[in-house]
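Supplementary Note 2. Why include the ligand at all?

Several targets in our set were suspected to adopt different conformations when bound, so apo predictions alone were not considered sufficient. For every target with a known small-molecule partner we therefore ran a joint prediction. The input for adenosine-5'-diphosphate is given below.
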Amino acid sequence: EPIIILHHISKTYTMGGQQFTALRDIDLTIRAGEFVALMGPSGSGKSTLMNILGCLDRPHTGSYLLGGREVSRLTDDELAHTRNRDIGFVFQNFNLLPRLSALENVALPLVYAGVPRRERTYRAERMLADVGLTSWRKHTPTELSGGQRQRVAIARALVHNPPLIMADEPTGNLDTRSTQDIMSLLKDLQAQKKTVILVTHEPEIAAAAERQLLLRDGTITRDEGKGVVMDVV
Ligand code: ADP
Ligand code: ADP
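The joint prediction is reproduced in token form.
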């Protein structure tokens, strides 16, 4: 069943009195449990689309059904609530809080969700164990390698059990070995029925996903996966 249905999504920016269309008339359905890579040249609209999918921004026109609920016209507070509940984010630069330990970073989404301290610690410890960092739980981000930091960030993205994970260039700052670790962690999420959407510039990374979307000038021009190639435009 679909977790994401976009219908006629468009987004226009106004700059110096000029209108610029960053996304034009996007139609897209993503099934629960899919692992999707989003590619496209700089300026093609990847960030704009990820911001809409991640409930960080609203489209100007069109409909966005997330888990069956229309979210394209929510208020800022409602969007933030949806985001905190339904979506886990992983970033190129990890976005960990430098003064907090790995464990405290992972527990952070549970603070926002109002989960009591003991349960926060218990759940964060379990997540850190899942990414193989139990013995690093007291360490701060600067005491960890890049690959370890990204594993902390993935544990944080998952700790509140969201159905959707958005990863923006998650391996952009990592060496080959750590890149493989992070990609296999993300792939393993499919077994838990998590939907993963990953932005990448690298075709080898995109190839690890089961479906590849190509954005060009604000339109999805290619949608391929499982050997099926569909030229949309
Ligand atoms: P990337 O290609 O890595 O996604 P970009 O340079 O396209 O990075 O964009 C980085 C951020 O800046 C995004 O959040 C995007 O929305 C914003 N941005 C991009 N272009 C502009 C612009 N012309 N004016 C204002 N913000 C922009
Ligand atoms: P990508 O992530 O693929 O690089 P973006 O979504 O950042 O693409 O940008 C798509 C287009 O929209 C670009 O031409 C960019 O300059 C423009 N854009 C993005 N964000 C803004 C913004 N906040 N204000 C004005 N223009 C923007």
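The pocket of adenosine-5'-diphosphate (ligand 1) is lined by residues 42, 46-48 (CB under 6 Å). The chain has seven helices and eleven strands. Comparable summaries for the other entries are listed in the accompanying table.
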